[in-house]
Amino acid sequence: MTLPYNIASSAQRPQYKPIPLLGTDCVIRSNVPLAPLTSFRVGGPAEWYVTPKKLDQLQASFQFAHSEGLPITLLGGGSNMLVSDSGLPGLVISSRNLRHINFEQETGLLTVGAGESLPRIAWKAARMGWQGLEWVVGIPGTVGGAVVMNAGAQGKCIADILVNAHVMLPDGRIEILSPQDLEYSYRHSRLQGKSILVAQATFQLQPGENP
Predict the structure, then answer these.
(1) pTM of the full predicted structure?
(2) CATH code at 109?
(3) Which of 37, 42, 133, 155 has the smallest set of CB atoms within 10 Å of its CB?
(4) CB 202 within 8 A of CB 100
(5) DSSP readout, 73-117?
(6) Angstrom distance (rounded) from CA 176 to CA 174
(7) 153 and 61, same structural domain?
């Protein structure tokens, strides 16, 4: 497929028919306003935009952009993201719908989708009687962004509890990376500035007083 791709200003961009990926559950839409999706509430539209819900849809989104030669911009919860008034060219892939939570009681391993909010998973862990995430309650944003930037508070950081992260490479391949692979430092990982999206992450929790 050849897209009617152009990088004209947002006012000049036409609205094209949505492009379905893997059925009607996931579609690529054109000229989508990004201001409502960011904390600053400003900025122009995405030339192309998609919100995959499942791993295969995420993979199809990356492969589509790769095959069409579209630049990729990754969007999580939109916290502290400032978008230009002219918008973003290429395909914006949002992880906000990559939401799932799986907890292994026997091992204390919590696996969550990149679109899950940090406060939500912290409260869920606490209600189950497990600790390790209580310090993220006051951090806005999503799991994916936290893994990429090594989010931290109260002297703790994501690198302290991360077991591994499933990431999507620009060509649609999946890799499983350890904290060592991510080359963590203060508020930094080797994923920053790259078109690599965190799909899910696994954290090691510890039993609280009443696990």
Answers:
(1) 0.84
(2) 3.30.465.10
(3) 155
(4) no
(5) EEESS-TT----TT-EEEEEEE-TT---EEEETTTTEEEEETTSB
(6) 7
(7) no
